[in-house]
Design goal:
The structure is a single chain. The protein is an alpha+beta fold. It has a single domain, classed as Peptide deformylase (Peptide Deformylase, Alpha-Beta Complex). The chain is 28% helix and 25% strand. The chain has 4 helices and 7 strands; from the N terminus they run αβββββββααα. The strands form 2 sheets. The protein has a 5-stranded antiparallel β-sheet. Strands 4-5 form a two-stranded antiparallel ribbon. A hairpin with a 5-residue loop joins strand 6 and strand 7. The protein is globular. The two termini are 24 Å apart. The structure holds nickel (II) ion. Nickel (II) ion binds next to helix 2.
């Protein structure tokens, strides 16, 4: 396993489309292992493959930050099939270090995906897990949480980001 470099806003790979995984081969297993290690090392509660520069539909999530062995979720080709409710909560992203803000998300989501071996899986998420699922699936569609805030807040973020170069500080 190896820790990979996390791409930072505004790198273009974070904005591109990701391709579905078709072959569940050794290369995919290596990518997943590296993503898990990179997520825990950061530390973060989720990581999408394009955040390490691989434009594939793969994400890893662990809202327990590694404290609960059962909490690790690996999703390949995930898709939200049901959502309900709405809540705002503080959100951040490993690709935008040093910036958090309130983001409105669905309270509950159901996601269909494949596991690392290609078997179908279904995940019901609520609260923080639902938020993490939506955040990571957004990544796989080239979307960042700063796209989901109001226009004025977003302008403020862009100004602050270009002035402070948040990405290179911590
Ligand atoms: Ni993120």
């Amino acid at each position: 396993m190896a820790i990979r470099e996390i791409k930072k806003y505004p790198e273009s790979v974070l904005r591109g489309k990701t391709e579905p995984v078709e072959e569940f081969n050794e290369e995919l297993q290596k990518l997943i292992e590296d993503m898990i290690e990179t997520m825990y090392a950061a530390p973060g509660i989720g990581l999408a493959a394009n955040q390490v520069g691989v434009a594939r539909q793969v994400t890893v999530i662990d809202v327990s930050l590694g404290s609960d062995k059962e909490a690790l979720i690996v999703l390949v080709n995930p898709e939200i099939v049901h959502c309900e409710g709405e809540e705002s909560s503080e959100e951040g992203c490993l690709s935008i270090p040093g910036y958090t803000t309130m983001v409105k998300r669905f309270t509950k989501v159901k996601v269909q995906a494949q596991d690392r071996n290609g078997n179908p899986v279904e995940i019901d998420g609520e609260g923080l897990l639902a938020r993490a699922l939506q955040h990571e699936l957004d990544h796989l569609n080239g979307k960042l949480f700063v796209d989901r805030i109001g226009r004025i807040k977003r302008e403020f973020f862009k100004k602050r980001y270009s002035r402070e170069k948040v990405g290179s500080s911590k």
